[in-house]
Amino acid sequence: MNSATREAYAQAIAELSAENPNIVALDADLAAATKSGAFKKACPERFFDMGIAEADMVGTAAGLATCGKIPFASSFSVFVTGRAFEQVRQSVCYSDLNVKLVGSHAGPSCGEDGGTHQAVEDIAIMRSLPNMTVVVPADDVEAYAATKAAVETLGPMYIRVARLASPTIHDADTYEFHFGKGEVLREGTDVTIIACGMMVPRALDAADRLAEEGVSAEVINMHTIKPLDEELVVASAKKTGKVVTIEEASIVGGLGSAVCEVLSEKCPTPVRRIGMPDIFGMSGAGGELLDIYGLTADHIIECYREMA
Amino acid sequence: MGTDLKAVANQIRIDIIESLAAAGSGHPGGSLSCADILTVLYFEKMHIDPENPNDPDRDRLVLSKGHAAPALYAALAERGYFPREDLLTLRKYGSHLQGHPNMADTPGVDMSTGSLGQGLAVANGMALAGRLDNKDYYVYVIMGDGEIQEGEIWEAAMAASHYGLGHVIGFVDHNGLQIDGTNDEVMTVNPVADKFAAFGWNVLSIDGHDLEAISAAVDEAKKCEDRPTVIVCETVKGKGVSFMENAVNWHGAAPNAEQAAVALAELRGE
Fold first, then answer.
1. Do B130 and A67 touch (CB under 8 A)?
2. Residue A1 — very low, low, confident or very high, per pLDDT cuts 50/70/90?
3. CATH of the domain at B157
4. pTM of the model
């Protein structure tokens, strides 16, 4: 394992296509990058390359969904959520159609292509749409499980996957994925660290290091940003009294915002949000950029100390 | 069916005026211009069953120019999908007849539309699904001539041709007018037929108010199995109501009671 979430997603739809004839996949000339080419190989008659035309791809997916198909429409996250935003709004979410959007190369870990291609706003804009579910898998095991669950769950969904490989933190044989249910990876009493996607291993790292100092950190893998597991957020914040969120996306409108919305209304708690600080990224090696932009265990620890 | 299509088309126009007058807002011009197309489709061509609006084998219709919703609603009501009285609830809070079509609310509406340019891509998706499932249904999509200024229409036109979607039959309601003026003043869309032909479509051009011509064109379109067909319909915006015909100010304004009475008298031949 330890593969990129984009690869696990594609492996999932390719494998599941054998047992579910309704799964179809669409791409916009990026099947090699999003890895949806794996589906094309497994099931060429149900794969549709729509060319470099994301709006058309999403609309076509909506039409397929009206006829009982389960379309997975993949592209870079910046295009499938941004270029096609209004198609997602009108043709997918407004009618509550069963379209699964998969955005890869999200966040600065997209790397060398630069700020034009590193979606920072995708979580925020997808989260703002009624009927939409937003999922950011933490590792390959979760990406596979979330994709399988997506097949079995009706309704619009945005699954954000990453370009870079990341450490596997789940046991593929035992892991159970449930939309809208955060996963407590570490129980703690001094601070709650809420993370999603590739930031989850970094949250665990921060918790390990804090433990060495005698600080007990609770780590939550919040794979579903919407609907947010409000109950878990509130219960954990009540227990620890301090929250740090970390995501590989803008701090405007993403996981951190979602957590703050809940806490400000239901359990006012000091929060520090780590993410892209309302800026676009730049070219560089993906892993290097995560460090440069402070998406690190160090930054989590620093934020804890500010509040301690 | 032996239906008097001319009478149906006239009744649909009456319904359009009555529902818009009751609503106090909406789009009469483009509703009236596509009334004849909808009449032929819903009362002669489409394989549909109002008792079973979600029949997976049915023909589909995507009203890509969703602001012509009053015409679609009238056709569906006259065809028996829901009571005619519902038409008078158009655009009112709590009505299933939203300002633009919503498939979740209204029986017989195959796709929610309203934001222009999105219907053809959806129709393509429906046709691809039919092909995968070995079904022989047709997908009709009605586009406005102003609407085809949207780029997504041409993305979808390319895709329909690329995938050889012979079961997609498009109509362009070519009435020549849009909100800000004539097509030519706002953004030139002509030559419409040549554009679709260049995208690989089978193209037919007809008088969009000639019921027999519409019917014959659909039959002709079905003979073309390996690529999509577009039927470019020369129409008159506001057709059937003299003071609305070719008048751009009736794109998005509902008649008041007095104007509605005059329009209805004309349509009823009084």
1. yes
2. low
3. 3.40.50.970
4. 0.97
